[in-house]
What we know:
The chain has about 220 residues and is mostly helical. It is built from six helices and no strands.
Amino acid sequence: MAEGTTPTQEELDAQAKAESDRKAQEDADAKAKADADAKAKAEADGLPTDQEELRKLVLKERKDRQEANAEAAKFRGENKTLKETVDKAEREKLTKEEALAKDNEILSQKAETFRQRAFSNLVKAEAAHLGFVDPGDAVRFLDPKLIDEDDDSKITKALEQLSKDKPYLLKTEDSSKSKKGVPAGKGGNPGGGTDKAGDEDRKKELRSKLPILGQLERMRGN
Length: 222
């Protein structure tokens, strides 16, 4: 085409086609290069380069992931069940320990009640023998810990001392004489003197009248 002349339609069409072909060739070259780069990377990563093989690999990985998720969910469920079982066992253990502690508390209370009753009965029996007007008064003046001593004579000695410290607790000679004319105080002594020769006989008599004393002695032996 000469300079300064107007191109014909055929020439314009030829130029457009040449430009289109050039563009298409550039796109084809770019795609070929991208495919080559992708193939080289896949080979470097150890992945298949064939599209069908790659699709199968993707499907396999997806299946493996689903199985792994299912296994993880199963494990979480088993772990939850195990935790619930352990928690239940801990609660049952705590309940048993609380029940045992409650039983021990009840037994301790019963033992203390028994101890106090034994003390009261023993003191009243001894006080009556020594001539106290109201044996119940003697119980209020003596230390309950005396029942824990192995020697019951300590209670007798404590009552004798009490009769000396508070003689008004004893019966008077005039009011306490029996039908035979003997004072209620042992050995005819209003102060409640101790007849050592009769201690054992008196203890046997007390045990026969107060079975709780025999139980108390068995507790001491344990």
